[in-house]
Amino acid sequence: MANKKWQIASPKIAAFLDDLLKTHRVFAPVKRDGLISFEPISEGDEALLDESPNSRRAPKEMFFPRSETLFAYEEGEITVVPLPDERRVVFGVRPCDARSLILLDKVFDAPDYQDPYYVGRRKNTVLIGLGCNHPLSTCFCTAVGGGPFAVDGLDLLFTNLGDRYLVEAITERGEALVADSPYFREAAPADVSLKAEIAARAEQAVSGPSVEGVKEQLDTMYDDPFWDELHEKCLGCAVCTYLCPTCHCFDIVDEAVNAQGQRVRNWDSCQFPLFTLHASGHNPRPSGKERMRQRVMHKFRYFVENFGEVACVGCGRCVRECPVNMDLREVLNAIRSRKS
Ligand code: SF4
Ligand code: SF4
């Protein structure tokens, strides 16, 4: 495990990214039309380096795109879309989102099934993390096994110290990315202790619901009247699932005219009635009640049964962006205080 530490002057980061662009496709948070999102950049100074909050859309789409053509066909001839093989760097990944990729690996890179599209992108991508000096009031990463400066899933971690950044190598692959760069110099002990102070403050600022006992409580709640009310204000818009870094449902469709077409994988959501509609017309999740139950059960019961962890990294996106203020933290508290 690499553990080297450097510092880089803040104005030099753009030049560092410019150097990476010579050999990699580089993604970074950018602000366009008032929205922060991860986009491919062509110049280092496009990357957002200030104290902005995390991107609205999760970086999962760089590994599992919203829509992806698997192959095309015409008159019996099939053209397979090549598997991803470009070298990529994602700069500015927050610790919660890096952790979400570890959870997605359990689904897409399992011992008995490997999704070649997802796995190819994961293998070719170096993740440069950015610690969260100022977590939002909706963040609860510490309640679900993460933290504003957690390093799980990252190759490098950058911490904003004001006029400079502390840079920590987490993996050898991360270390290799900066080892020969002229913009880094060895971190001073003062840099390391300043980072520790910032991280401790950030950690203290995060609060959230405990998920302890939630799985056991959910084990008893499949037919609980709790679900009758919970879903009532939900619009079924699926914003919570589309923005969630760990949600991963998809549909595969043929988009064709006569004998010409393409097979496409698109994101889908358990919050849509069509998601579970059978060809017979029967729908095992006919109302918002069953669909809301599924979302909560999948994250906090079924995923724990299958993989030993909750499928939530506490990024707070579903809390911030739900148009009717459905607050997952309140849902978890209500489940915990439910008498079985
Ligand atoms: S974002 Fe809110 S309203 Fe939309 S599906 Fe999710 S819980 Fe329901
Ligand atoms: S369930 Fe909500 S808080 Fe948890 S990872 Fe998904 S979007 Fe973030």
Brief characterization of the structure:
This protein has helices spanning 13-21, 95-108, 116-123, 172-179, 189-205, 214-219, 226-230, 239-243, 288-307, 317-321, 328-336; strands at 5-9, 25-32, 35-40, 67-74, 77-80, 88-93, 109-110, 113-114, 125-130, 156-160, 164-169, 185-186, 250-257, 260-267.
Helix content: 25-40%
Alpha plus pi helix count: 11
* Tally of discrete structural domains: 2
Globally, the shape reads: globular
Secondary-structure-based class equals alpha+beta
Descriptive account of the structure:
The protein is an alpha+beta fold and 340 residues long. The protein has 2 domains: 5-205, no CATH class; 214-336, no CATH class. It contains 11 helices and 14 strands. The protein has helices at residues 13-21, 95-108, 116-123, 172-179, 189-205, 214-219, 226-230, 239-243, 288-307, 317-321, 328-336; strands at 5-9, 25-32, 35-40, 67-74, 77-80, 88-93, 109-110, 113-114, 125-130, 156-160, 164-169, 185-186, 250-257, 260-267. It has an 8-stranded mixed β-sheet with strand order 3-2-6-9-10-11-1-12, with helices on both faces. Strands 5-4-14-13 form a 4-stranded antiparallel β-sheet, with no helix packed on it. Strand 10 (156-160) and strand 11 form a beta hairpin. The radius of gyration is 21 Å and the shape is globular. The termini are far apart. The model has no long low-confidence stretch (mean pLDDT 96). Residues 243-246, 299, 312-318, 328 line the site of one iron/sulfur cluster.
